[in-house]
Each structure stands twice: as C-alpha cells, then as structure tokens.
Amino acid sequence: MQSIDLICSICFILATLSMKFDAVDGLPSGKQWTEWNTIGGGVKWLANCDFPGFDIRFEHIPVELCAKTCIDSSGCNAFSWIDGWCYLKNIPATSLKRVPSPRGSCGFLPWEFSNSGFIS
C-alpha cells in the first residue's frame, strides 16, 4: 500500500510542476512553442504582446532592429517593441510571462534560457 501512495504522490508532484511550467506563458512549452515565430539566429517572437517589466534599456529604433539590439546587448534575454520603442529586458525564466499588447511585439533569445531547464 505504501508504494501506491508513493507513486500517487510522485504523480501529483509531477502534474503540479507541469502545470507551473505551462503557466509560464512566455516560455514555449507544449502547445505554446508552436505559437512563436522564429527569425534569424533562432530568436522567438510574437506580434501583439509585451513582456512587462525587467527593462535594462530602451531606445527608439525600427522593429526589425530590436532583436539584433538585444542579441548585441550584454544581459539582454528578451525584448518588447511598442510604438517605435525597443525595450531590452533581463527576465528570470520563471517571470517570462507575456501580456497582450495590440501596439507591439515581443521576443526572447531561447539560448539565454537553456540552462533554466525550461527550454531544451
């Protein structure tokens, strides 16, 4: 009987962890991975979204330069572009959650999160 209880406990823990990982909306897991577009160098991005907070710098540049600026900036692992402004971000993996923003787009550098265990 103890082994059944142990197995049930392990299943519950794994299910709970799985739900927490899926709840991290910005990070691709399961079905969410297919939502992201891929651009040069493997950068993932989506239209109509924002990653609020965690700004390290911002500048007024065209949307097509925002991802490259993040790649070239030390500490940047994600970005949002809204109304002509590129917001470079350093977001902990557990806080990478996107919100709707009809005036912009957001993206992240998957290789900057690979050590977190969220992205393989």
Report on the architecture of this protein.
A 6-stranded antiparallel β-sheet has the order 1-2-6-4-5-3, with helices on one face. With 120 residues, the protein is α+β, with helices and mostly antiparallel strands. The radius of gyration is 17 Å and the shape is globular. The model is unreliable at 3-33 (pLDDT under 50). The termini are far apart. It contains 2 helices and 6 strands; from the N terminus they run αβββαβββ. The protein has helices at 2-23, 63-71, and strands at residues 37-39, 43-50, 55-60, 78-82, 85-89, 99-108. Strand 1 and strand 2 (43-50) form a beta hairpin. The protein has one domain: 3-Layer(bba) Sandwich (Hepatocyte Growth Factor), CATH 3.50.4. This is Apple domain-containing protein.
Task: Looking at this protein, list some descriptive labels.
single chain; 120 residues; alpha+beta; Hepatocyte Growth Factor; six-stranded antiparallel sheet; 2 helices; 26% helix; globular; Apple domain-containing protein; signal
Oligomer: single chain
What helical percentage do the residues reach? 25-40%
CATH architectural arrangement: 3-Layer(bba) Sandwich
Mean pLDDT, as a whole number? Answer: 76
- Write the H/E string, N to C: HEEEHEEE
Number of strands: 6
Give the SSE map.
Elements: H1 2-23, E1 37-39, E2 43-50, E3 55-60, H2 63-71, E4 78-82, E5 85-89, E6 99-108
Antiparallel strand pairs: 1-2, 2-6, 3-5, 4-5, 4-6
Short overview:
This is Apple domain-containing protein. Residues 1-26 form the signal peptide. The protein is an alpha+beta fold.
